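Tokens as discussed.
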């Protein structure tokens, strides 16, 4: 079956509020801001683990938000029917020191994050 999804490139100024708020909140180590962005039944997939629901996501944020000091550089973004992907170059004090990742957000009608995945940068 042929893939019929249409992908649109997005400038940083057109990213949904939850996307920019997540990155800004994470960079500021603002746990409360990051946690408030998720729907109650959301999922986060990170480093081979899936965190389901608010309690597990809150724990994930608490366990990981302060692990490393990083800077992020926006590389580009795209949107398809179901997902907004924002790619960043991340530099910091983690093993390897540099990575380019795409944060893949799925949002509900209220603008809350219902799913967040991470993949290699798409741009």
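Sequence:
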């Amino acid at each position: 079956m042929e893939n019929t999804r249409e992908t649109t490139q997005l400038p940083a100024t057109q990213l949904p509020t939850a996307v920019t708020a997540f990155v800004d909140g994470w960079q500021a180590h603002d746990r409360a801001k990051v946690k408030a962005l998720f729907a109650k039944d959301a999922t986060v997939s990170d480093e081979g683990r899936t965190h389901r629901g608010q309690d597990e996501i809150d724990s994930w944020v608490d366990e990981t938000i302060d692990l490393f000091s990083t800077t992020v550089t926006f590389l580009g973004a795209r949107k398809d029917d179901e997902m907004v992907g924002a790619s960043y170059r991340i530099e910091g004090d983690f093993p390897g020191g540099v990575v380019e990742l795409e944060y893949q957000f799925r949002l509900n009608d209220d603008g809350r994050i219902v799913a967040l995945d991470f993949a290699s940068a798409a741009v």
